[in-house]
Amino acid sequence: xxxxxxxxxxxxxxxLCAVSISGFSQPAGSPYQDPHGRFSLRVPNxxxxxxxxxxxxxxxxxxxxxxxxxxxxxxxxxxxxxxxxQMAGQWRNFKExxxxxxxxxxxxxxxxxxxxxxxxxxxxxxxIVAASxxxxxxxxxxxxxxxxxxxxxxxxxxxxLGFAIPGATAPPSSNTPGRTASNAPxxxxxxxxxxxxxxxxxxxxxxxxxxxxxxxxxSGNARSATEAARGILSSLRGYFDNAxxxxxxxxxxxxxxxxxxxxxxxxxxxVVGVIGVELNGSGGTVAVIFxxxxxxxxxxxxxxxxxxxxxxxxxxxxxxxxxxxxxxxxGWRIAASGKGTVDVAGPNGESVSLGAxxxxxxxxxxxxxxxxxxxxxxxxxxxxxxxxxxxTALTPQFSAMAQKMGLPSLQLTRVLDAQPxxxxxxxxxxxFVFAEIQVGGRPSQSLAWIMAAPTGYGQWVYYxxxxxxPKEVFAGEAQTLLAIWKSYSTNPAVFAERLDNAVKSMNxxxxxxxxxxxxxxxxxxxxxxxxxxVIRGVDTVxxxxxxxxxxxxxxxxxxxxxxxxxxxxxxxxxxxxxxLAPRR
Length: 584
Fold this sequence. Notes:
Helices cover 25% and strands 37% of the residues. The chain is α+β, with helices and mostly antiparallel strands. The chain folds into four domains: 3-183, 3-Layer(aba) Sandwich (Protein Transport Mog1p, Chain A); 201-310, Mog1/PsbP, alpha/beta/alpha sandwich (Protein Transport Mog1p, Chain A); 321-505, Protein Transport Mog1p, Chain A (3-Layer(aba) Sandwich), CATH 3.40.1000; 537-580, no CATH class. Strand 12 (245-251) and strand 13 (257-266) form a beta hairpin.
């Protein structure tokens, strides 16, 4: 068969790609089957389909797509270049932007992306995808004005991914058209594979989709938010298959805040997301928002809204046997309770112990029976009444008692901060104390309210309420721990105010940990709409002469600008992200 003649139905139809058509013969969103059984496709929502000689044409606004078929097998690359050459004769300033291999309908294919002025003189993009089997050659030709390309792109992608050739074997994975497999969204709308939440983070899933938010904090003398973001993403290797790759970022002049767009995979499912990092006096806070590669553009705004509540989880009321009540999150449990006391245990080693009191001797008492020692697990001794000194003296004694009962050991590593507060007992002293401890050898942090008050006859009372968590978890859980503490009904009404005032009065390092959830919320809110076009995979190109801007696929943007500048039709540039997301 003469291949030149066999291409005539394809070439003759090319001129129609820039011509509007009216009417339709297929409802939007419905499947279409070629009457001759050569191919099938699904009409994207909002698109209309009409006959085009022996093939079909689809329309969405000013975007057009044509499916053309000719008899005889042809090499896809030669067919694509031949069709591109024919278009070059109809367009002005026609330039090839991209040329690579792909698949179409399960068959090997070749595609090319071109730019220029269409026959109506409108700046436009054109994509040609060509494939062939043993009997036919296929061409999917898609075009749109440059400024409208992104609104048409979902339909173009749907057409390309949904194109089927009977008898063809589907490729091993469904790639985003014109992209490599590593950047391709996974097929289907299933949930992301489950992974254990990384240490130091809390995770909030999107109940309406597949996205997630990881939020947390870190300590240390970090000087660069950018380097901290890289380090955090590297540490997430294991949650993600490999360390996520940063593609673009925006940061403040001092590099104390940064936001970066990244890609990764979870069990080979491609995901994309945004990480936001803000440094403070003793470390920083981080928020990581991500979703399946094909879903983030739709879920991003919702995830940002969900992330604002990460540090304020829903608390559920629990009535206690003594008539009091407390509020705890799902997954937490009441470990013990008594009159005026309660112990709460969290899923990651967190604990809340409220209302514990014990009598203490200023000196260890002598046994009234000669030769018979008083059991040391019943006697506490130490100086009254400085809360920090009391904590230091009594912690080893509490640890010895705990180990005899089969409980983890306790060791006070160091007191980080202390803020005196009013004692409810005359003559007593009270303070909020923030300390590093070890629980069963595990580094942890604890915030305690301690009161010590004399009772006479060489005795005094030691009263303590505290919240504790492993060090890598504490900052991320601080707001939850404090919320549980404040909810306990036996706390006087003024207690919550005293606790808040104490936190505000503590040093900057302590505040950065205890208020990490609030800071993380601010970081998450900074990961905002300015990243919308990054997430949608677009760049803004601008004609500096006219000031007009267009959003185009970021795969093509720089090549498009180069091509437009070569035509002499204005001074074009890709608008830098910093111009779109002003530094603060």
